[in-house]
Amino acid sequence: MNVLLLGSGGREHTMAWKITQSPLCTQLFIAPGNAGTAQHGINVQVSPNDFEKIEALCIDKNIKLIVVGPEEPLVRGIYDYFERKNINVIGPSREGAQLEGSKAYAKIFMEEMNIPTAGYKEFTKATETQGLKYIANKTPPIVLKADGLAAGKGVLICQSIDEAQNELKSMLSGKFGTASTTVVIEDFLDGIEFSVFVLTDGQNYKVLPVAKDYKRIGEGDTGLNTGGMGAISPVSFVDEALMKKVESRIIQPTIKGLQKRQITYKGFIFIGLIRVNNEPYVIEYNCRMGDPETEVVFPRIKSDILELFQATVQQELDKVVLDIEEKTAVTVMLVSGGYPQQYEKGKIIKGIDKVVNSHIFHAGTKTDNNTVVTNGGRVIALTSFGETIQEALAYSYQNANHIQFEGKYYRKDIGFDL
User: Fold this and answer.
1) At what angle do helices 128-136 and 161-172 cross, to 10 degrees?
2) Pick from 48, 45, 39: which is nearest to 66 by CA?
3) For 361, which of 13, 55, 264, 400 could close a Cys bridge (C-beta 3.0–4.6 Å)?
4) H/E run at residue 254
5) Which CATH class is domain 119-187?
6) What is the pLDDT of residues 40-68, one digit of tens each?
7) CATH architecture entry for 2-84
8) Distance CA 132, CA 145 (A)
């Protein structure tokens, strides 16, 4: 079959690499893609949010399956749009995507299904005064979350009541645009985070490899939050006993909640979790795969990914086997100087041909006059396998030295806390 993959990051390059390993894939198109995805299919300059142009592309190229990388098209209702056109989409319906699209919606859903999460209240401009009073009675740190999509920047952890009150005013006054029209104030949970990924057809589900990512720009988890500086899978502290709790208390109630609300959901559920005193709590839901976690999760999936996707579309996930690589996968992200703030693009990337024992997944790259150049903050993910984290990291770090571009930076302590 012909497949269309939407997106342009490291997640999408990894997905493209995996999809084209399937004998079921005749031709892969990626919209808009990057220099790496072009190695596996045909990049098409169409926005993932332009449903009419995507439809025209699907008709022209006889595309039968759309795989959605980023969250915005899902929240905008791409599944619902193409359901009417009889084109299959891997992703939830518009309402299902509200689990990511609205923090308040997700909190109400978890409360209804008795899923463990931090205590919270939501506030708008009309209830700002009550919000300030609510904060005054809290013990810092205090977590503030923009209700809507804020490009991963809408979560603030405030260390004082004054800071939290000032940030609440700022958010309700448009700090994150319409995303912070409503603000969710949460209790702070102190623990260690990990990511669980589920592929579901709405009735059945498969639990994909567990991962842990590293968000801060600086070593020792310091500095500004980023889209992710690296990831590891499996995660040593997530043992069988903890995963049994995750499955019984979180995954199964989530699937039952979707059924109870009659929500169509044929895609990925990314559950951001935190372990507190060996008990799992949900920090957030995402309605798609994470990045850079995809760069370690997908390489560990030995099964045919299109076979899994077909089973998802047909609600027959219970009939296929998910085979997982036991070795450890790690990814180290090479980023542009200045990221996650101001950075320059168009820097020539050299040394890609010197990389051995690692997969190169392009994130922010493009081809300019037959030369690969930087085109984003996160530039390249280097994913390696090993019998141990240390062995896998050694390969990625060795290859990080081979790849050169002006301003290159990467964290040298991925996995330091495991």
Assistant:
1) 160
2) 48
3) 13
4) helix 252-260
5) alpha beta
6) 999 999 999 999 999 999 999 999 999 99
7) 3-Layer(aba) Sandwich (3.40)
8) 15
